[in-house]
Design brief:
Layout (H helix, E strand, L loop, with lengths): L2 H25 L15 E4 L2 E4 L4 E7 L2 E6 L5 H10 L7 E2 L4 E4 L5 H38 L5 H34 L2
Antiparallel strand pairs: 1-2, 3-4, 4-6, 5-6
Length: 187
């Protein structure tokens, strides 16, 4: 495989990871709808090590406004409740000693705007990450051209291909932001 294919493949792979990361970040932003993804990133102390909630309990969504957490061990109920409160998601855990219910309150207009602003910042950070990946790839191609590994024509052609790839992924970031905005603003 030539240097051009290697650089293009690495760029594509890194940009895909960047988009996946953005989607994961977006899934942690609370909207008015219950999703198990809201608890992603919340860890709880489990016999001395930090474990994600979904690895010590079953997380389900019985209806659009409730998340239900059923710990596999009864002793985990209180630590999970504390972890959810400490995560500052605006959720108020309710427990019967076995199952924790997390009612999802409706969002105020002000809170929706704050959340969307945070999403816009995440999207902008995602675009910056994509541009950094593009710059790294362009630098590799320019170095290969300087070292006479590829011709100037091949380098220019590949730089254009990398730019088109970047444009495509930036458009994906914009699409994801638009979807998240719709989700946040939905009442």
């Amino acid at each position: 495989m030539g240097i051009i294919e290697t650089v293009y493949g690495e760029t594509d792979s890194r940009m895909k990871k960047s988009i996946e990361n953005l989607k994961k970040e977006f899934s942690r932003i609370r909207t008015g709808r219950a999703t198990p993804g809201l608890l992603d990133g919340i860890t709880v102390d489990y016999y001395g090590s930090q474990m994600p909630v979904n690895q010590v309990a079953t997380v389900s969504v019985p209806d659009a406004r409730t998340i239900m957490v059923q710990p596999w061990e009864k002793s985990m109920v209180a630590p999970i409740e504390k972890a959810v409160q400490a995560a500052n998601l605006g959720l108020n855990p309710q427990s019967d000693g076995n199952i924790i219910r997390l009612p999802i309150p409706a969002l105020s207009e002000e809170r929706r705007k704050e959340l969307f602003k945070a999403c816009k910042q995440m999207a902008e950070d995602g675009k910056v990450a994509l541009r950094n990946i593009r710059r790294d790839s362009n630098d590799k191609l320019k170095k290969a051209e300087k070292d006479k590994l590829i011709t100037p024509d091949a380098s220019k052609k590949e730089l254009d291909a990398i730019q088109k790839l970047t444009d495509r992924f930036v458009a994906t970031v914009d699409e994801q932001l638009a979807l998240k905005e719709k989700e946040i603003m939905e009442i």
